[in-house]
From TrEMBL:
UniProt xrefs under PROSITE patterns: GNAT
Cell division is among the record's keywords: no
UniProt-recorded name of the protein: GNAT family N-acetyltransferase
InterPro entries in the record: Acyl_CoA_acyltransferase, GNAT_dom
Entry-linked Gene3D superfamilies: 3.40.630.30
Length: 286
């Protein structure tokens, strides 16, 4: 893999050329930034800056414009900073106006053709595409168990909005794909079940015609970790991405998942750090 070329392609297609990833959201090109905002706050769309092309002489003005925009929204707003973004002190400039950095993750990418589709779940575990509201609830429950806390209300709303509309149709089609959402994005979601109970879950975001498919939310209940379920969920989603014409899959990998993805053939391309601006006086769940 030519890391520089793939990273450039990722920036052009998934950041600068992003499309809305949730119903009730739109992508806006505002000067030197690309941002996503929600048309309807109740729909729970992620809101923030996806891409920026700043330099030392213009960065503060652009940051001020986005900060003012976020203040007018009156909602949580995130600036997704990558380690290769300019200027190099972008994080410092964001923190100076109130953005709070969250734990960094590693952007990791693999070619779908290079990933093994033979990684099966362990004995007694089967994979099933999300097909209805009960499956969506199970996906949320296993997320709670896997990550040690309640699923944020915004993400729960987003899951229902994206998966609820088309999960059943996708399952009937045999691919586990949700119906196209706003901007041409659809969701593939899968559960790993043992004795009828969901013990792991993951999802994948697909944009029609995009070279990359995004892997999100992979989490396993503690007592089921280390048995190969995560690998099987990656293989399941990668094979579907390949069948739908996506050359690459990517993930924002935590410290826990990064070594697993590296062993599967993923390459680290950049470090991404969410910088979050929250309205003063509002409480947010931990």
């Amino acid at each position: 893999m030519d890391h520089a070329a793939v990273l450039d392609l990722f920036d052009r297609s998934m950041r600068r050329g992003a499309v809305a990833d949730a119903p009730g959201a739109r992508v806006e090109h505002a000067g030197n930034v690309v941002r996503q905002v929600g048309v309807d706050a109740a729909a729970g769309a992620w809101e923030g800056v996806l891409w920026s092309d700043l330099d030392a002489s213009t960065a503060d003005a652009d940051i001020a414009a986005q900060t003012a925009y976020a203040a007018a929204l009156g909602r949580e707003f995130e600036w997704k900073v990558y380690s290769h973004d300019r200027p190099r002190d972008l994080s410092d400039r964001l923190r100076a106006v109130g953005f709070v950095p969250e734990p960094p993750e590693t952007l990791m990418v693999a070619e779908t053709a290079a990933l093994s589709a033979a990684d099966e779940p362990p004995a007694g575990v089967r994979l099933r595409a999300v097909a209805d509201e009960a499956d969506i609830a199970a996906l949320a429950d296993v997320h709670d168990e896997a990550f040690g806390g309640a699923l944020p209300p915004r993400l729960r709303l987003r899951l229902h909005a994206q998966l609820g509309a088309g999960a059943g149709a996708g399952a009937k089609a045999g691919a586990g794909a949700g119906a196209p959402a706003a901007g041409g994005t659809r969701t593939v979601a899968v559960l790993a079940l043992a004795d009828g109970r969901a013990v792991s879950a993951a999802r994948m975001e697909l944009v029609a015609g995009a070279p990359f498919a995004g892997l999100w939310g992979g989490g396993t209940a503690p007592e089921w970790r280390g048995r190969g379920i995560y690998r099987a969920l990656v293989a399941y989603r990668a094979s579907r991405a390949a069948a739908l014409g996506h050359r690459y899959v990517y993930a924002d990998a935590s410290d826990l998942s990064r070594p697993i993805l590296a062993r599967l053939g993923f390459s680290p391309l950049s470090i991404t750090t969410p910088h979050v601006l929250r309205p003063v006086g509002k409480d947010y769940p931990e």
